[in-house]
Amino acid sequence: MVKCKVTEEEKRTAEKFYKEALTMLNEAGLSYLVGGAFALQQYTGIYRDTKDLDIFCKSSEYPKRLS
Predict the structure, then answer these.
(1) What whole-number distance in Å separates Cα of residue 32 and Cα of residue 7?
(2) What secondary structure letter does DSSP report for 29?
């Protein structure tokens, strides 16, 4: 297993992206759940670096998120 070291700049860039994405969802009034590593940390306290943002929504609301 190869582990990549994430730089502080990469962490800041990712955090900015995640905040912008969630802000856009909130401002649009869309319902969603955050999953993956962020949910794991929130509910268990276990932290791991991640390179994605897992967002779940109802299938009927999916087209709204694409516009």
Answers:
(1) 29
(2) T
Where along the chain do its domains lie?
A: 8-66
Q: Encode pLDDT of 22-53 as tens digits.
A: 999 899 888 899 999 888 888 999 988 778 88
DSSP state of 61: G
**Global model pTM greater than 0.85:** no
Contact criterion met (CB below 8 Å) for 39 and 28: no
- Do residues 34 and 50 touch, judged by C-beta distance below 8 A? no
Task: Give the whole-angstrom CA distance, residue 56 versus residue 62.
Answer: 9
Residues 6+ apart with CB under 8 A from 54: 34, 35, 36, 37, 38, 39
